[in-house]
Amino acid sequence: MMMPTGNSLVGRGFGGWGLQTNLPASITHGRYVVTHWNAGLTWIPSAQNAAREHAALWNPNLGQSTVFLIRPRFNALCEIAWSSNATVVGKGHATRTQNLVLNPGVRWAYNFASGLQIVPGIGVPLGIGPSAGQRGMMLYLSFEHNLGMPKSR
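RESULT FIELD:
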C-alpha cells in the first residue's frame, strides 16, 4: 500500500493512494555466488500533477543482483535496476521515462551473540542507457534478527 505523503503540487509524490507488489527469487550458484531477482509493478489509480490533473499510472520495475561471498562476513555485489515511470501530464494522460542503473558495491556484517546482525554497505549507482550520466552514492544499513525463529536448513 502506498500513501500520498508527498506534495504532488510541488512535484514530490504522486498525490494519490497506490498499490505496489514485487515478486522476488534468489538462487545459490555454488559456495561463493548468489543471485537475487525481482519483478514488480506499482499502480496508482488516481495520480495527480501540480495542475491537479489526474490519471491512472502503471509503473513496472525489474532488478537483479549478483552477490560474491568473498569472506563469511564480507560481500562484493553488483546490482542492476530498471524502472519505467509514468507521470501525469494532463487529465487522463501520462508520459513515461525509463531508468536503468548499475550499482556496484560492498557490504559487511557484524554478528552479535543475541542473534542480531548489523549489515552496513556502500554502493556507487551509475546511470546507463536512458540514465547515462547520472551518478550517486548509496549507503545501506540493515538490522537483521531471527526473533527466536528456528533457522532453515
